[in-house]
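ok here's ABC transporter ATP-binding protein, seq below lol
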Amino acid sequence: MSDEKNLVVELDDVTLKYANSTSFNLKRLFLSKHERQRVVSNSNANREAALSNVSLKFYEGDIVGIVGRNGAGKSTICKVLSGVLEPTSGKFYSKLDVGSLLSLNSFFAKELSGLDNIYLAGALLGKTKKEIEEKIEEIIDFSELEDSIYKPIETYSSGMVSRLAFSIATTYRSDILIIDEVLSVGDKYFREKCKKRMHEIMQQSRLIIIVSHSDSDIKNMCNRAVYLDKGRVILDSSVDEVMDKYK
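and the structure came out like this:
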């Protein structure tokens, strides 16, 4: 990757270790970035995935695919790139607005309603209460959850959870789009809605990072790929070279 391109995001020797899980206060999420980061970290406290001495550079115009097996650290790196997880050591640099994070369903509070989780997710994305409330109707309409929005997330099917996460994340637009394993959600009709919205967002974003288990998603959409394993970068290269190594 040539340094002549415009560097917009960089991870420099980043290591992340999860803290022990503790309780959190939903109201405090609107007050403190540290509190938001702690909630996301605690939601993953029992997972083995972490990052170890990760160094990556992302350039304007890149569409980067991140691949790896379960527990490789793919979702963790997305959360660091989105700013909701702070590295234990190393540096994270970004000169762009990062707001979209499609792994929201990994830290929804299952005992809360879908509506309450809209507030929670918005706060985790750094939005104010006013900014969240301005988008609630649009989020609910796109998700097609209707009255189910008032029921606890734990009563939702996996498809309903993914639809809500997709609707929240794609309602808030930013320079950097991070897509974490939710490119195919819902039935055929809803997937077509998602594809149309994704096309619109991709035209606006200056950097796109995609996590997917689908080879076709990575090959058809990305100009570069990164292979992670056990929290470490195995290979950062062309899509074909990375996919050959990964498989």
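fwiw The mean pLDDT is 83. kinda neat tbh
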